[in-house]
Predict the 3D structure of the following.
Amino acid sequence: MERVMGSQEEMVCGTRRRTEAKMKDQVEPRMDRRRFLGQGAAAGLGLIALPEFLRDGSWRGSGSRERILLVLEFVGGNDGLNMIVPTERDAYYRARPKLGLRRGLLSLGEGFAVPRGMEGFHRLFKEGEAAVIHGVGYKGHERSHFRSRDIWHSGRPELKKPQEGWLGRVLSELRGFLPAAAVGDVELTLALRSKRRSVPALENVDDLRLDWDPRRAHERRWLQRLAALQKGSEGLAAEVGQVATASMEQAERLRKAFAAWKPKARFPSDRLGRGMRFAASLFEAPLDTRVVYLRHFGFDTHAGQQRTHPQILRSFSQAVWALRNQLRASGLWERCCLFCWSEFGRRLAENKSLGTDHGWAGPVLLLGGGLKGGFHGSFPSLTELDDGDPKVGVDFRSVYRSLLEDWMGLPKAPYKVKKLPGLFA
């Protein structure tokens, strides 16, 4: 059983991510930051394949009114029992004599509550704009962060080294200039990796700016050669020059469009708040963006959980409330579904370090104006455990099927599990 302390876990995860990123770069270009745009500009001379994002042919999207999906990953393994607190289960308090939450709780009804600090989520739940799905996970215990994330990201538990994500597989069904993006990150999540379509990972709006200055002599020469390709060449060479020049112009138009965007809601200034703000701007821009992916860190609470867990839940609740106010003002909230998940839950019992260790099942959250709010699925027993963990009652792929088919309106998802009914209005 893994018992890595919080700070050590972050170092281990960071080392693993850097190693994996270097390995990925050796196999395929990483669609992140300015490289996503810069390679498009360089394609005019280096014949590097332009990403579809800038190869689409037209800058402005259609401004479609289709439904949109925002995915928020709680990285580290969220303790769902201290987020959706089972206030009427004595077994919860017996297993957590120090970590069990008793005071300052905000009731959701049916014997559940959220901790103080989640006022935004609580209000959304009471207004029918938030749903809790109990006991979500997959068969088999995988207490490894990396293996469990691979399973959730790919939707393919049978694959040891998946290469494509559950969202990446359906991107070919989405049309428009920028159908999907990962924001607030420099690295593209496996969930969005596709064999048929490139997706950008954008840390912030500045990543839509090309690091290109024609005042520099060598870059001025590149621009001159691009212009020459268009004027003095025919066939493929002329087309490459034209598309590469257009990609730079489109990137500059994007930058100006986002610079002019002004939020109507007040977003928190922390990392998640900035990511939510950027996500809202993508949805509101005429780019036909239908899927945005975000990550929220700090959930691997092996020690000192009573200090850190309430803080990251408060950050989440505040960011979600701002997102709701922003999208409601722009008329998009009814068409938005925010899906929040984590790679696993935590064990029922607290540990000696006043934390919780890697578990199994946990709740997932849905938020938006077009949901059937409330509780879905059955809350797992806290007395009939599987190796100390609450059992899985809902296969995570059932949630995926419902999101892809019932919410996004996409063709039948490739999962041999039933959909979870009754999630959407």
Notes: The chain is about 35% helix and 15% strand. The longest strand covers residues 130-137.
